[in-house]
Design goal:
heterodimer; A: about 375 residues; mainly alpha; 2 domains; 3 strands; about 70% helix; B: about 650 residues; alpha+beta; Penicillin-binding protein 2a (Domain 2); Beta-lactamase; seven-stranded mixed β-sheet; about 20% strand
């Protein structure tokens, strides 16, 4: 322990005493940002779905998502989450299997299961499951030496199952995000250099295999079209191009709330889900978008900060995982909308319509708060 | 320190710094991209988005209506439904074409051909695939519209051709030639032509294109990505511009449509042309050229087969023969020779020539049309019987150049300037002309033929009618014209034509004119005259028949399906005016390769019928005007009471 402390000396940016503060202002900050994002998201969804029922539907779901936020933030202690992490993974994997065989098909992929009136997308929950699984794995397999590939094999197998199940739907984007979340979390762990090298060498081979065997033609087209949307308007590059036009035409200050002509005249496809950011960018322009970018960057930074201050491996990794989940989704979605990433169907947290995605990010933020509370010792009193 | 650290976190502290750096770099990259799109290229995308949502819909202008001199509509418009293809919005061209082809029973190749023609134009401009859809076809397309993105039915006003419309006079409309588009638009930049526009290709439609075409309007509509019109921005408080089209200017023709119809009916079954003029002004009262063509077919896009048929027909249906057909005038020309002879004192009214049925010049014999001979004839008798020998003699004595001088005084041998695209000058030979053209001196043997309007002589029916109009009015050579007045869409007169005198024919004295008129009246009204078939009860009619032997067109006789014998028939001519003094109507009838017989037999009755109809119409109109007058007076009286 002393050894460890010595090692990290000088890396810490904050003085030692700061760690012992009884109460973190981060909870207030997180809650403020959460409410701000939720509000902006809803207002923007209102504009994006003028005349459609998405806004009303999202507001109705607000009760569920908010209670989930509170539940994971203040009611369930992070230790409890740790205990049920693998159970959660098991349930999600089972749901993904059910989806594969009986799921509702929409947009060319099988992603939903219907539980009575509620349509549910297990692949959204799978992201959380990956976060919890990776965190749990390292909290229960502690070792001081760097992890080798053999040590990580069980983890790779469990996450791999989830990855393959989502990939098979096919949901290339979500599967990719799951994989990336795991990688982000792993990057905070000391891993044998040779193992990393091995993994990096195998990545292009695996990617090539996936490209040739698993990718549907439309997905291949999407990847290619992201690189040059102007090549083939009206067809596969159409979405990307139209969203680029929407964002670009927003200019410095935007066209004004509900004045986004691109979106309202239905040039924008999927404007209430994957391309919701283009509605925002069109209506609120560069400065509006800068606000959003800043908020997401800030949340991510807070997540990292919370993780850094946590002495509990599970809690710390959960915070890292949640931060990467939110930031990855944000970055991929926004890149996609701005035409620098293939159209892969990743929602923008808090903005995109969809109860599953909303539930996922609410739980994620809840977990972050829970971690922070455990850091500051508040949870210890429970 | 109250907290107890149960365990140390497994996470590597230094990685947090790296993560922060990665986060910073990522967010900076995204912001850079955002800046690039929204600010650096913001104006560009803004412009694109403007185009995206607001579409310009062209509103075609209806062409001006063409009225006759009495206000009757000769050619108007009606709405046509066209199937248009907007390349920008068609995802799968082949499937789309296949569907339409199956729905409308039109081969796909037709669509492909039309699309190919429009290749150079921007993708957002519509291409007409099929014109003039029936109601049924419109409903079929509309019902299947969801399968046909980029396919629309557009309505446009276009020419509504009735069966009586004179195609040569009015001309026809045809889709603008893609290659001609740019050159045309140089001169009409404010009101440019677009591909698929119909333009006048002949006759009045061509000559008055600038006035008739009107100005296209446009309106902007909001559309969604599927090109469907979406709700306007009314609720947000600004409305999109809507510039209505300006209809073309209306023409008032000099044509009397009733007389035109009568002329067409009288000439039915013949090939050639009829021109009816007002000798006092030069107004064209009727103009018929046969065979005709169907202008409707041209407007809708003529098929290659139909076009070939039109082009290959030996009677040239596309040619406006009234001013564009050159014919040897035959005996009709004798009036000119007679006037020249009288003015040059080669002959007088008493001078006689003996006609044995032929005329000998050197060792050549020129026969009279009546080989039995006419005996001793003076000018009047020679005109009456159309004695060739008399005119051979007069012609020889005058010589070719003196005849030509008189012919040219009447505007023969050059264009009258009716300003229709097909107008031809005809040909009045002179010795100089022959030298220039054939490098041969004028031979004495050439003169007899040209003296009776054959040989090199060529004149158009318009010139023929105008010649006799000038004889009728005593020497005023008017320029024939078709359009009295042009009125723009708000009712202002923007052009008015006043009779235009080409020249006063001073070479011929009034006495000579009177003498010739008397002789011409005898041709129609005296027993034994060759024009007796043109006589009309109750009015004086003067006229002259003509028959021309035809030996041309031999090369066409082997064409299958054509009436071989008709090529060998003679041209039958008749010119007339009525009444003899202060004539109101002058006519030239040229029946090409007539199968009935010569001018007196075949063409004279046509002229007679037209003249009869003219007077009948005049009486009827006077009567109805009188009745109307009486009604008005009665009405006023009633009001007064």
């Amino acid at each position: 322990m002393a050894n460890r402390k010595k090692q990290t000396e000088g890396v810490f940016l904050l003085p030692e005493g700061d760690l012992k503060r009884p109460r973190s202002p981060q909870i207030t900050l997180l809650c403020t940002l959460f409410v701000a994002l939720l509000t902006m998201g809803l207002i923007n969804l209102y504009s994006a779905s003028l005349g459609a029922g998405y806004f009303a539907s999202q507001v109705k779901n607000l009760a569920i998502t908010l209670s989930a936020f509170v539940l994971f933030g203040w009611v369930i202690p992070i230790r409890q989450v740790n205990a049920y992490a693998y159970w959660f993974l098991g349930v999600v994997a089972a749901l993904l299997l059910i989806v594969l065989f009986t799921g509702r098909v929409a947009g060319g992929a099988q992603r939903w299961i219907s539980l009575g009136p509620i349509s549910f997308q297990p692949s959204e929950m799978a992201k959380l499951a990956v976060v919890l699984t990776v965190a749990r794995f390292f909290s229960s397999n502690r070792q001081d030496a760097p992890y080798t590939i053999r040590d990580l094999l069980p983890l790779a197998a469990t996450v791999g199952v989830v990855f393959v199940l989502i990939f098979a739907q096919p949901d290339f984007g979500t599967a990719g995000v799951c994989g990336l979340i795991a990688i982000c979390m792993l990057s905070f762990i000391r891993i044998n250099l040779r193992s990393i090298g091995l993994v990096f060498l195998s990545v292009p081979i695996v990617a090539a295999l996936l490209w040739n065997i698993f990718l549907m033609p439309y997905q291949k087209l999407r990847v290619l079209n992201a690189l040059n949307p102007e090549l083939d308007p009206q067809n596969s590059g159409y979405h990307a191009l139209q969203s680029l036009i929407a964002v670009g035409s927003g200019g410095v200050f935007g066209k004004g709330f509900t004045q986004g002509t691109q979106a309202h005249l239905r040039f924008l496809p999927e404007r209430h889900t994957d391309f919701i950011f283009s509605v925002f960018a069109e209506e609120h322009g560069f400065w509006g978008s800068v606000v959003i970018f800043t908020v997401f960057a800030f949340i991510t930074y807070i997540a990292l900060d919370i993780a850094r201050h946590s002495k509990d491996t599970f809690a710390s990794l959960v915070a890292v995982g949640v931060g990467s989940l939110i930031f990855l989704e944000f970055a991929i979605n926004v890149s996609m909308v701005m035409g620098i990433f293939p159209v892969v169907g990743i929602p923008l947290p808090f903005f995109s319509f969809g109860s599953s995605a909303m539930l996922t990010v609410c739980i994620s933020l809840g977990l972050l708060i829970s971690v922070n509370r455990s850091n500051s010792g508040v949870s210890k009193r429970n | 320190m109250t907290r107890i650290h149960k365990q140390e976190s497994l996470l590597v502290e230094s990685r947090f710094m790296w993560a922060s750096i990665v986060l910073l770099v990522a967010i900076s990259g995204l912001l850079l991209r955002l800046w690039y799109i929204q600010i650096y290229k913001g104006d560009y995308y803004r412009e694109v988005s403007e185009r995206n949502r607001v579409r310009k819909i062209e509103i075609p202008a209806p062409r001006g209506i063409i009225f006759d001199r009495n206000g009757e509509v000769v050619l108007g418009n009606r709405p046509f439904y066209d199937l248009v293809y907007i390349p920008q919005y068609v995802a799968d061209k082949d499937t789309t074409f296949k569907i339409i082809s199956r729905l409308l029973h039109v081969p796909v190749t037709r669509f492909e051909a039309r699309l190919e023609m429009a290749q150079s134009q921007p993708k957002f401009l519509p291409v007409a695939l099929k014109r003039d859809l029936s109601q049924h076809e419109v409903s079929i397309i509309e019902a299947n519209k969801i399968f046909l993105p980029g396919i629309e039915v557009r309505v446009a006003p276009r020419r509504d051709y009735g069966p009586e419309v004179p195609p040569h006079l009015l001309g026809y409309l045809k889709e603008i030639d893609p290659e001609a588009l740019d050159t045309l638009n140089v001169t009409s930049q404010e009101n440019p032509y677009l591909l698929g526009d119909l333009v006048g290709k002949q006759g009045i439609e061509l000559r008055w294109e600038k006035y008739l075409r009107g100005q296209r309007g446009y309106r902007l509509i909001q559309v969604d990505a599927f090109g469907r019109q979406s709700q306007g921005l009314e609720e947000t408080g600004f409305s999109l511009p809507n510039v209505p089209s300006k209809p073309g200017a209306d023409l008032e023709l000099t044509i009397d449509y009733e007389l035109q119809k009568a002329t067409k009916a009288a000439f039915a079954g013949k090939n050639g042309a009829v021109v009816v003029l007002n000798p006092q002004t030069g107004e064209v009262l009727a103009a018929v050229s046969e065979p005709g063509f169907d202008p409707k077919m041209m407007q809708q896009g003529v098929s290659p087969e139909d076009w070939r048929e039109l082009i290959e027909n030996p009677f040239k249906p596309l040619l406006d023969k009234t001013s564009g057909g050159e014919f040897p005038p035959g005996s009709v020309y004798k009036s000119v020779v007679a006037m020249a002879g009288l003015e040059e004192h080669v002959i007088d009214e008493n001078r006689t020539v003996y006609c044995p049925g032929f005329y000998t010049l050197g060792n050549r014999r020129f026969y009279c049309h009546d080989r039995k001979g006419h005996g001793t004839v003076n000018m009047a008798k020679a005109m009456l019987k159309s004695c060739d020998v008399y005119f051979y003699q007069v012609g020889i004595e005058l010589g070719v150049d003196r005849i030509a001088r008189y012919a040219k005084a009447f505007g023969l041998g050059e264009k009258l300037g009716v300003a229709l695209n097909m107008e031809k000058p005809g040909l009045i030979p002179t010795s100089a002309w022959k030298m220039l053209t054939y490098r041969l001196p004028w031979a004495g043997g050439d003169t007899p033929n040209i003296s009776i309007g054959q040989g090199y002589d060529l004149i158009t029916p318009m010139q023929m009618a105008n010649l006799y109009a000038t004889i009728a009015n005593g020497g005023k050579l008017w320029k024939p014209y078709y359009v009295n007045k042009v009125t723009n869409h708000v009712g202002e007169t923007i052009y008015e034509h006043h009779p235009e005198l080409i020249r006063d024919v001073k070479e011929v004295s009034p006495k000579t004119f009177a003498m010739v008129r008397a002789a011409l009246q005898a041709v129609v009204m005296e027993p034994g005259g060759t024009g007796k078939n043109a006589a009309v009860e109750g009015v004086t009619v003067a006229g002259k028949s003509g028959s021309v032997q035809v030996v041309s067109l031999k090369k066409n006789t082997n064409k299958p399906g054509s009436d071989v014998s008709s090529y060998w028939k003679e041209h039958a001519m008749f010119t007339a005016f009525s009444p003899t003094e202060n004539a109101e109507i002058a006519i030239a009838v040229v029946s090409q390769n007539d199968i009935v017989g010569g001018g007196g037999k075949s063409a004279a009755p046509v002229a007679g019928k037209i003249i009869a109809r003219y007077w009948q119409l005049k009486r009827e109109r006077a009567a109805s005007a009188q009745a109307q007058n009486k009604d008005e007076i009665n009405g006023k009286q009633e009001k007064a009471n």
